[in-house]
From TrEMBL, chain A:
It comes from Marinobacterium zhoushanense. This is C4-dicarboxylate ABC transporter permease. It comes from the Bacteria. Residues 13-439 form the DUF112 domain. Pfam families: TctA. Keywords: Membrane, Transmembrane, Transmembrane helix. The chain crosses the membrane at residues 12-41, 53-73, 101-128, 140-173, 193-217, 259-279, 355-377, 389-406, 412-427, 434-452, 464-487. InterPro entries: DUF112_TM.
UniProtKB/TrEMBL annotation, chain B:
This is DUF1468 domain-containing protein. Keywords: Membrane, Transmembrane, Transmembrane helix. The chain crosses the membrane at residues 20-42, 63-81, 93-112, 119-138. Residues 21-147 form the DUF1468 domain. It comes from Marinobacterium zhoushanense. InterPro entries: DUF1468 (IPR009936). Pfam families: TctB (PF07331).
Length: 504, 147
């Protein structure tokens, strides 16, 4: 129980502050939890590991939850994962019950967050224990599996695979590091780039560029339109909320939280997939499916419990395998690296205190989120009105600090921010998917070491199939994900054709 | 038979060239994927471009190019000047502070719709207070490196 000594007042204060800042980010449309974590990273540079993680986990939980506020009051999802909250939340608010809608969502968020934290607590150490036995071959296959899963669940499979591979290629730029058994030669760049890219692109400037600056470019292109806050539904004098609305919703809560946790575990799949899946599942099983989309509590419960359950789920592969479950946890990897820690199968066993303090921070952040939003929702609702012309310059400034300070003052990291900010803006337009790209970028370097070293040791490719029963199981999983994606693709195509024919 | 099959899988990597082994595989796969994507979609793309549904320009139809390019130019000048000014006052964070104030002011003015004196006051205060607060809190108190 040595970790209890780590739980200082400062620890809880930072977790709470992170949660509040996260809620604000989440509540402002166009700003996401990932952006909150990326932009606030510099605040953790001078903090210790545990305090830094408390702040970042608070931001994560707050950022995912905050999105429900504009979803209900303005019919605009504050974060992509609250898209399904608009379906029922806004109609209920318009029907004169905004406070009830908000509070249903807040309670569902808390349940989802806590459920996934419990799953994380029991499941991550088990998975890590299992993964400790992995050799380079199984580790390579795990990365390969992660990339096939991302690709198979992408909007477009081919584009998903292409984006993932592009991410891997970006990770290979620089020196083939001798500390990993490489030969110390440069590759994938011209001679004049050597002084800047000797060690390749730094992870965090790339992520801050893709999730921070790229969003600003997108918004600038749209003309920085302020949301029409005059249409925001006011919260005064409406019917109060009672917990009675949750009667009969227990199975919905558990099912949706499970879906959210599971989707969170799949690498590169964002919160919107979690909430959409939980929402459609609830619609399929509902006794009154016709009411969903018109202000049904069950729709909000499904959506919000699923997207908050994503938080714990996405941390499972991160802490047990070193593979981020979504883009926010990808930024968290950067925070670990910054503190000189490597996440992977050994992490939990070797850093028990950190693991317990992370769990404490996650649970605490969920309760702070609940307390702040449940009791101060009237004030939080006003946050949506902070004008973008004030916010965006602050965000760019914070992005610059984050990028510049990450390697203790490298100006090229700031330019990396611009390169990837523009790249992120363009990527969406030409069909490149950012989530697979980021996961490929994070895992690319390890994939190379595991792959090349395995071949150097065994001299044959067949070892990837014959090394161990686990390798065979992993190949079966890879095959299953490919078959699943082809079947899904065909089904979607058939549905699209049917719709087309029906319209014709 | 089985021996010839297993020899098919045999690979030896020349250590001097080992830095190119994996990148070559990845580039080959990317090229194959690109060809596949083009082959699968070329017809549809041509048809959509001809019908005007698909635009070749990277910008949306009603893109606000003034604000977009304004942002780009301001960001480039900001990054460049921050380094230049920072070298005049090394290790003080002044490069950051002295360039952030005008950058934030200009960017806010670029983004705002409908200027009133109240809005202008808000922008002015924000573009002074935010950089000074960041410089003091992060640079001075927390000793984070700033340009």
């Amino acid at each position: 129980m040595e970790f209890l000594a780590l739980l200082s007042p400062e620890f809880f204060l930072l977790s709470a502050a992170g949660c509040l800042i996260g809620i604000i980010f989440g509540a402002i449309p166009g700003m996401t939890a990932t952006m909150a974590v990326a932009v606030c990273l510099p605040l953790t540079y001078s903090l210790g590991l545990h305090e830094g993680l408390a702040l970042l986990l608070g931001l994560y939980v707050g950022g995912i939850s905050g999105g429900l506020v504009p979803a209900i009051l303005l019919n605009i999802p504050g974060t992509p994962s609250s898209i399904t909250t608009t379906f029922d939340g806004h109609p209920m608010a318009k029907a004169g019950e905004p406070e009830k809608a908000l509070k249903i969502c807040i309670v569902a968020s808390l349940v989802g967050g806590l459920f996934s934290a419990v799953v994380l607590f029991f499941f991550a150490p088990m998975l890590a224990d299992f993964a400790i036995k992995f050799s380079y071959i199984e580790k390579f296959l795990i990365i390969f599996f992660a990339l096939t899963v991302i690709a198979s669940l992408s909007k477009n499979i081919l584009a998903g695979i292409f984006s993932g591979l592009l991410g891997v290629l970006l990770a290979l730029i620089g020196t083939y590091d001798t500390s990993n058994g490489g030969n110390g030669e440069y590759r994938l760049m011209f001679d004049f780039m050597v002084p800047y890219l000797e060690t390749g692109f730094s992870l965090l400037p790339v992520l801050i560029g893709l999730f921070g600056l790229a969003t600003i470019f997108e918004e600038a292109e749209k003309g920085i339109k302020e949301e029409d806050t005059h249409s925001q539904i006011k919260l005064k004098g409406h019917k109060p909320f009672h917990f009675g609305v949750f009667k009969g919703q227990i199975s919905n809560l558990i099912r949706s939280s499970s879906i959210g946790t599971f989707v969170g575990m799949l690498p590169g799949i964002g919160g919107s997939a979690a909430s959409v899946l939980a929402y459609s599942q609830q619609k399929n099983l509902s006794k009154n499916p016709e009411k969903m989309g018109k202000g049904a509590a069950e729709g909000m419960v499904a959506s919000e419990s699923a997207n908050n359950a994503l938080t714990g789920g996405a941390l499972i592969p991160l802490l047990s395998l070193g593979i981020p479950g979504d883009s926010t946890t990808a930024v968290l990897i950067g925070a670990f690296t910054l503190q000189g820690l490597q996440v992977g199968p050994l992490f939990i066993g070797e850093h028990m205190d950190t693991w317990y303090s992370m769990m404490a921070a996650l649970l605490f952040a969920n309760f702070v989120m609940f307390g702040a939003m449940f009791f101060a929702i009237r004030y939080i609702a006003k946050v949506v009105m902070v004008p973008k012309y004030i916010l965006y310059p602050i965000i760019i400034m914070m992005c610059v600090i984050g990028a510049y300070a990450i390697n203790y003052g490298i100006m090229f990291d700031v330019w990396t921010l611009l390169i990837f900010g523009l790249f992120g803006w363009l990527a969406g337009k030409i069909g490149i998917e950012v989530a697979p790209l980021v996961i490929g970028f994070i895992l690319g370097g390890s994939a190379e070491v595991y792959f090349v070293k395995s071949i150097e040791s065994y001299g044959t490719l067949s070892i990837f199939f014959t090394k161990s029963p686990i390798a065979v199981v992993l190949w079966l999983l890879i095959l299953a994900s490919v078959v699943f994606s082809i079947l899904m693709h065909r089904k979607n195509k058939r549905l699209a054709n049917q719709v087309e024919e029906a319209n014709a | 038979m089985s021996q010839s099959l297993s020899s098919l899988f045999e690979v030896s990597i020349d250590f001097d060239q080992s830095h190119l082994f994996f990148p070559t595989i990845v580039i080959t796969l990317i090229a194959l994927m690109a060809l596949w994507i083009v082959a699968a979609n070329a017809k549809q793309w041509v048809a959509r471009v001809r019908s005007g549904e698909l635009r070749l320009s990277p910008f949306n139809e009603h893109a606000d190019k003034f604000r977009f390019f304004g942002t780009l130019v301001l960001v480039i000048v900001y990054f460049w000047s921050m380094d230049a000014v920072g070298q005049l006052f090394p290790n003080t964070g002044m490069g950051f502070l002295l360039t952030s104030i005008p950058f934030m002011l200009l960017l806010s003015l670029l983004y705002v719709h409908g200027i009133t004196s109240r809005v202008l006051l808000g922008i002015g205060l924000n573009s002074i207070i935010a950089p000074v607060a960041a410089w003091y809190l992060l640079g001075q108190l927390f000793a984070i490196s700033l340009p």
